[in-house]
């Protein structure tokens, strides 16, 4: 932590003095490091992207359709000041007679997973467009595993991620521990040291897993550590 803080201050100081040696590093932190924050849908980057252009709105709607959320359109209506808005989603359905019908919901009436996907997708697409490093804590929070997987697949798909954006995320979703989905060198574990209480990071590759091995099963069985342990007195240890 000390080294990181010292390095960050040095880059900031060097930029104030217009030192050319650190100019590219400063620009990378300023322009390419993107944290996907948990925020209400109404104040999310997605709203800004939809309002920005019809093209951006079409891209967002396409991803929401691919995610099978059943949403065919989104309407943004400003309320009060420019930072407030009412979001209405339009759903397409076919009734028993085969007729196509539409109904609308307020965003707050949608499921927590839909709201979370919506609030993320605008910033996600923007980061892919800019070739940024996406940093996300608990990527699976309130979302169906397949929605989480879709967000990760977008970064892995070279047809979508043409600017070579990268993704760094934490998760408790053991379903993502799949060597058909992630490489061995992409998976790291975090475990708290019992004595110092410091969190230690170590890679899956340190265990030399076999190709095709069921690492999810091995992780849940405790082979790789980094899992909660219930003591004999019923207390949790990590």
Describe this structure in words.
It is a single chain. The protein has 238 residues and is of the alpha/beta class. It is 34% helix and 21% strand. It is built from seven helices and ten strands. The longest helix has 19 residues, at 112-130. The relative contact order is 0.09.
Chart the SSEs and their pairings.
Blueprint: H1 2-16, H2 23-31, E1 33-35, H3 45-52, H4 54-66, E2 71-78, E3 85-94, E4 100-106, H5 112-130, E5 133-136, H6 145-156, E6 166-169, E7 188-192, E8 199-203, H7 215-220, E9 229-230, E10 236-237
Parallel strand pairs: 1-5, 5-6
Antiparallel strand pairs: 2-3, 3-4, 7-8, 9-10
Helix pairs in contact: 3-4, 3-5, 4-5
Features:
single chain; 238 residues; alpha/beta; 3-stranded parallel sheet; 3-stranded antiparallel sheet
In short:
By secondary structure, the protein is of the alpha/beta class. It has seven helices and ten strands.
Q: pLDDT average, as an integer?
A: 86
Number of strands: 10
Distance from N terminus to C terminus (CA atoms, Å) equals 22 Å
Shape: globular
Biggest sheet: strand arrangement: 1-5-6
Q: Which regions have little confidence, pLDDT < 50, spanning 5+ residues?
A: 1-7
The chain-level structural class is: alpha/beta
Oligomer: single chain
Instruction: Bin the strand percentage.
Output: 15-25%
> How is the main sheet built?
3 strands, parallel
Helix tally?
7
Radius of gyration: 22 Å
What are the secondary-structure elements, in order, as H or E? HHEHHEEEHEHEEEHEE
| Helix amount | 25-40%
């Amino acid at each position: 932590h000390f080294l990181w803080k010292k390095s960050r201050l040095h880059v900031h100081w060097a930029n104030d003095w217009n030192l050319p040696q650190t100019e590219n590093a400063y620009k990378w932190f300023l322009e390419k490091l993107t944290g996907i924050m948990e925020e209400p849908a109404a104040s999310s980057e997605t709203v800004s992207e939809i309002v920005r252009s019809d093209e951006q709105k079409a891209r967002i709607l396409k991803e929401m359709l691919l995610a099978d959320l059943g949403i065919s359109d989104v309407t943004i209506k400003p309320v009060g000041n420019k930072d407030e808005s009412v979001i209405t989603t339009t759903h397409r359905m076919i009734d028993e007679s085969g007729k196509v019908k539409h109904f609308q919901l307020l965003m707050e009436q949608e499921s927590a997973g839909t709201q979370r996907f919506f609030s993320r997708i605008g910033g996600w697409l923007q980061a892919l467009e800019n070739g940024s490093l996406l940093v996300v804590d608990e990527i699976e929070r309130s979302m169906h595993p397949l929605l989480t997987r879709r967000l990760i697949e977008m970064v892995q798909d070279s047809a979508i991620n043409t600017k070579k954006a990268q993704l760094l995320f934490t998760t408790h979703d053991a379903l993502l521990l799949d060597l058909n989905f992630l490489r061995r060198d992409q998976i790291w574990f975090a475990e708290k040291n019992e004595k110092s209480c410091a969190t230690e990071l170590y890679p899956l590759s340190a265990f030399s897993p076999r190709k095709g091995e069921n690492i999810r099963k091995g992780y849940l069985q405790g082979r790789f550590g980094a899992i909660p342990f219930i003591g004999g007195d019923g207390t949790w240890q990590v």
